[in-house]
Target: Ubiquinone biosynthesis accessory factor UbiK
Amino acid sequence: MIDPKKIEEMARQIGNSIPPKVREMADDIEGKIKQTLQNKLSQLDFVSREEFDVQTQVLARTRAKLEQLEQQVAELVAAKQGKVE
Model:
C-alpha cells in the first residue's frame, strides 16, 4: 500500500493549488481529495516495496538456477553427442 504520508502530501499539493478566494474551503476539499485518493489507490493492484524486493530476489535465484540447469543440459547433450559419433 502507498505510504499515507505520500497521499497526504499529494492532497495538500492539490489543495494548495486552489485559488485564494476559495481558500476557506480548502480544508474540506483537501479532506475529500485525500479520501478519494485513498479509495482509488486502494483499488489499484499495488504491492509493497518489501514484497517487490522479495519477489525480485526469488526471480534472481530462479534465473540463476535456470542458467545452471541450461549449462548442465548443454554438457549432457555435448557428452551424448561425443559418445554417439
